[in-house]
Each structure stands twice: as C-alpha cells, then as structure tokens.
Amino acid sequence: MKKLLLITTATLLLSLGTLWAQITNTATIDATKIDQKINRLIYSQFSEHLGNCIYDGMWVGENSTIPNKNGIRTDVMEALKKIQVPSMRWPGGCFADEYHWMDGIGPKADRPKMINTNWGGVTEDNSFGTHEFMELCSQIGCEPYISGNLGSGTVQEMSQWVEYLNSDNESPMTTLRKANGREKSWGVKYWGVGNESWGCGGRMKPQYYSDQALHYSNFLRSYGSNRLNMIAVGPNGDDYNWTDVVMKELGSNFWGLSLHYYTWMTGSSATDFKEDGWFEVMKKTSLMEEIVSKHSAIMDKYDPAKNIALVVDEWGTWYQVEPGTNPGFLFQQNSLRDALVAGINLNIFQNHADRVKMAAIAQVVNVLQSMILTKGDKMLLTPTYHVFDMYKVHQDAYLVPSTLECDKYSYGGDSVPSLSLSGSIDKTGKMHISVCNLHATETKMLTCHLKGYKPSKGSGQIVTANSLNAYNSFEKPDALGLQPFSAFKINNGQLVIEMPPHSVVTIELEGELETYDNSIQLKNPVPGLNYELFDGSFTNLTEFINMKPSETGLTSQIDFPIGKKTMNVGLNFEGYIKIEHTGMYNFYLSSDDGSNLVIDGKTIIENDGRHAVIEREGLIFLHKGFHPIKVGFFQAGGGYMLRLEMEELKSGKREVPSEKNFWHEKQ
Ligand code: AHR
User: Fold this and answer.
1) Which domains does the chain have, with CATH numbers?
2) Catalytic-labelled residue, pool 196, 280, 606, 617
3) Is the C-beta atom of 423 inside 6 A of ligand 1?
4) E strands along 162-223, which residues?
5) pTM listed for this prediction
C-alpha cells in the first residue's frame, strides 16, 4: 500500500514536471517598446433610459426607502466608484435620438411625459434629466459623455444643450440653468453627435450623416477653457464603407469615431448553454480584433498620426431576455462566459491603445452585459464587474507591447486562439499581465518572455468557476468573484503561468525596468534652445521646412519670443533636453495652431494643422543625460497657445522647466 502511494505521488510529480516542460504557448512582453498609454476611458460605461438601467437601477428618487443620495442609489454608486468608472455615456442609445433635453430640466412635476418607443413603450416621466445625470457623474467621480439628438432634434436644440452645460457667460441658457439651481457650468468634455445614425438614429447613408454631422458640429461650441471632444457616429460592426466615408468627410473636426459591435446571441439564454454556446460566444467575441484592426487601418489612411480616437461605445453580449421579463427591457443574467467576453475585449482594446482611446460596455446596470443587477433594494455584482475590478490596474498605465503564439481552441470544426493577453506598467513601476483562457476544458501553460523588465516577485487574481455557466443570483450573490491566484512561477526573467480552463487572470509583478543608455554626449553644453522664426500664414508645419528664417536666436523656453504673439508665424525650436532620472516620460503638447515634438529623432507628438487649443500626448523612454529635441509650431490668426509639459512615470505632470531642461551645444 505504502509502495503504491509512493508510485502514485512520483507519477503525479513527474506529470506536473512534464506539463511545465511541455509549454507550447509563448508570449513576448517587451518593455523596451513602450510608446502608448492605455486611456482609462476604455473602461467607460453606457447607461440608457432602457428597462431598469436608470430607473430603479441607479435612480430611485429622494423619497425612496432604498438608501440614496439626492435620489441616486448609494449601493450602486459605491460599487461603481470601486471599479473607477472613468466616464458614463447617456441618455442612449436609440433613446438619445428621441430625447429632448428640455423635457428633463426644471421642477419634476412640470416635466412632460413621453413614450419610450424604442424600449418597451413605457412612459418616461423625465424625472431623471440633465441635472440628475450630472449629479450621478459627480457621485461616481467620472466624466459625463452625452449623446446628442441628431435623429429627431434640431441643430439649435443640441447647441443650446451644450451652452446650458458648459457656458459661464450670460445667456438665456445659462440663466435657465441658474434658475434650475446650478450656478457654475459643468464643463462636459465628450459629446456624441447622434447614435447609430445608420439604424435607429435615422437610417442615414454615410454621406448624408457626414453632412449632417458637419452641420451640427459647426454650432457645438467649446466654452472657456473646456474643449468639447465630439464623437461622430461610426460603423455598425464590420461596415468598413461607413468608416471610409465618414473619416474622409469629417476628418479632424471630430475627436473620435464610434464603433458598435455586440457579441450577438439573441436566440439563446444567458445561462442555459453547453460547450457549443460557450464556443460560439468566444468565437464571436474574438472577432472584435479583426473589426478594430480593419477600422483602424481605414482611419490610418485619413489620420496617419492617429489623432482621432476609435470609440467602441457599445459592446458586450446580447442574449435572450430572462424568462418572464419585458422583452423591451433587455434584462439578462451574466455568467462566467461574460467574464471571458469582458477580458477578451479589454485585452483587444488595450493592445490597440494607439487608436482605441475610449470604449463603453452596454450597459452599466440591469441591461445587457451589466456590471450590476438590482432587484428592489438588493444588488449583485456580476462576473463582468469582477473582471473590470481586476483590470482597473491597467487604467492610464503604459501598454507593454506583446506578441502571443498559442494553440487553438477547436470545436465543431471551427477554432479560435485559446488565449488572449495584454500587459501594462503602471506609474509605480508594477507590471500587470492579464490573460484569458478561452478553452472550456483544457489548462494552458503559458511562458511569458519579459524583455526590458526584471521581475522580483508577483501575485495574482483569477475569475473562474467550476461550471461554464456559473453566475451570481440574488439568492447566492457571491457564488463567483475575485480569488487569489498562485499557479505561476518567475524564473530567469520569465513568467510561466498555468492557466486553468475558462478563466481570466491578472498577474501583478514587482520589478525594475531594465535601462539602456540612449542619451548622447555633448562637448560643450550651454543653456538655451535655438529658434528660427518664419513670417507667413501657414496651414501646416511642412510649409516652412525649406524657407529662410526671418529671425534666429536663443530662447530659454518653448514659447513665442516676447513681442511676437500677435503675428502669423512659424517657429522651430531645436536643441537638447536634459533628463535627470532614467525612466518613461509622457510629454503633453498643447497648441493653437499646429505643433509637433521630436525627441531622439522620433516624432513623439503630431499636433499639426490649423486648430484651436488641442493637447496631445506621447510616451518615450529616456536615459539620464542629453537628448536631441525639436518642437515645431505655427500661429495663423485667432487664438494663440503653445505649452510643453512632461510627466515622469513615478511623478506628476509638470511644465518643462526651461532653464534646467533646455540646452544647446556652444559652437
Ligand atoms: O444598447 C442597446 C441598444 O443597442 C442601443 O440603444 C443602441 O444604440 C444599440 O442598437
């Protein structure tokens, strides 16, 4: 008996050893190639006047017995704060193109009622309107993202809404806002010019929509120092022609172009499925990679500097509604399968951080792939919520580019990559690697080769369950949540992970960026930058490349030389930037009009063209010492502005201190 036990243990150890040795899946995670920040707005949420998303889900009214602050549920707000929701899209969706914002302001008793024709034909009493939404955003601490009504509204109505929200001047709109109890403007930054204009938002063709959007956008003003970032209606899934036409016509007038792609499973249940249902969802979700890549490639044609964001502002699973619920309310349960959908999509968005700057899952509470479900005074957190919680470490962290070679998950004659991965380094220097194992039944061994980063220790978290369709119910709200995870090893700069089937994992590594010296030696450095000034009214930076400057000199800062502020001019600054500490640096360049920043011969920021103040950012690794720097700029009528700021990985954003940073070589 003893002998048998010994043999069994030996066999077990041997097979575990063989398993570790038989690693077929490899990822290279390269910290020497960091050049993108993961915009935290990728973690945004979408809320619509649909079913119980707003009413009962978040808004219960001041007189409710459910604990609330100013009518907004305290439990739901606390949960949303925990996952650091960066922005909230509202009021729709299809609802947005039938919504008249003036119906939702002023005394509640006077607010007209309407029929929510899109969603269940229920009566909308407009008790939740602009002021309530802004209160909700302020309780969460997130940016509001408002979708304006282009489908059935007017240019005047939309432009007045922006004025009501954002102006501090004296006007009928600001007087009305003050009369409704809000003295100061809110400064809304993100603005959708319509929603799904190819469908419920007006059944438009791309050319017609582009004309409409240009017309509307012309009257949507930026007030004070707040810049209104407009988001144009983008394609439905793989409608590449829509992207092509809209990008061509709208181009740089817009901050972003939206994309809607759902994991569409309307014929099947959210929880009652077998492996075929699991596989289908993995397959449809993985398609997001191709869709994002192809739309990005089309956008590159018109915007090679990648200044226009792809905004995936509706994504997630869409199943049959829960039995016995209103089909128009889109209420569905959320299982482990949805956790995988969240992980896969977030990995895709992060890996496309150069183009995908914002995304919003549909929808935050009680609708489609929600974070939270409510029933009366009860609330539960879904598996999707736990993935958002686990992934929040990636918000505003620096994307570590990765490549992944993995085997396939094959089922019923079809296949998908079995793993999905993304990684980032945060401001404290910690690396986070998130991996999904899509396979329903097989454990996957994954070796991650870490380049440019030396890990010293790590910890992990996992979302998984024994069954594919495990979910949290009101009876068992904690059946599935975040668990500690330790099935990984750090070995000689490599990370080996044993990924359980159907799981989402995040590993946190503590360690050091391995540095390399990319600074240059100067023989005789003296403070100050060379500048060249060109007279003329330019439309872009290339127009004065071959011109003779009308003035040259030395300056201690990146700004206009005194006395030239009103002129139409081009300017080039050139010299060296002195870096005190080796590390990652994020630069911010704000200008009105065009500008660019080149460091170490690499264009870090492209902010060209005639425009009002626009801030753009770019990342670079800099070793302590001197680095060649060039800043181009032109001013062409109207407002004037030029500012360069930088942020070290471990410290905050600050203006580049001229005397310390800017140098040139004495001839
Ligand atoms: O999220 C539900 C609906 O899906 C939205 O209202 C619409 O934009 C999309 O078709």
Assistant:
1) 22-32+400-513 (2.60.40.1180), 33-399 (3.20.20.80), 525-664 (2.60.120.1560)
2) 196
3) no
4) 190-193
5) 0.92
